[in-house]
Write a structure and sequence with these properties.
This protein is of the alpha/beta class. The protein has a single domain, classed as Vaccinia Virus protein VP39 (Rossmann fold). It contains 9 helices and 10 strands. The strands form 2 sheets. Strands 3-2-1-7-8-10-9 form a 7-stranded mixed sheet, sandwiched between helices. α4 links the parallel β2 and β3. The longest helix is centred in the N-terminal third of the chain and has 16 residues. The protein is globular, with a radius of gyration of 19 Å. The termini are far apart.
Length: 231
Amino acid sequence: MSKFIDKLSIFKKKIYSAKKSYSFGGCDLLIDYIFKSKKRGFYLDVGCQHPVSNNNTYLLYKRGWSGINIDLDPKNIRLFDLERPNEINICKCVSSDNSEKDLFFFHSGSPINSLEKKTTKDKSNFSLKKIETFTLNSILEDYKIQHIDYFNLDVEGHELDVLNNFNIQKYKPKVISVEFIDFQMSELEFRNNNVDRILKSELYKYFTSNNYHFVNWTHADLIFVHETFRD
């Protein structure tokens, strides 16, 4: 009887301990845990790519959160409109200014379409396209956004340019996850990441100088929490 009870206990643990992640590297599980006591919240996802697969906000969306999803690819935004129609889904390319720039385009829906030439390293199957760019500040002002709980930024090496025209002191997201691509790697693989280079990076300096603490790192996502966050 005791053996049966123990087996039943293990089975229950398997069921109730299982955690479903939709992120590429499990970032959404960490974000979900950080906000475990917050039933409703608002996120900003720049470079959202797909509404479910490899997405850092879908887990929050499933439990009642909502927000703004921005991507430069019309195909991706059509998918968001289909799967998450009650959110603000915007097809725009975000950069440091409102202008026109070269887009290194691989194919529709590609997660590595980027404004950064460095992302084309060892690749030749792309074309150059002109694309209109917008600042994050201008988009948030257009939609009269005042508050952001969680900010996810993944724009294939163009993160600092986006942050260059983002009023972080005004919006002060409680938690931020940002993709860090280390172009010093001989090969862009997670196993080649180096925490020393993260701590010396301009991204790390940007956030710590704006009163954020570096609290976790999963795959290529760095997670920062504002020093005033208490939820």
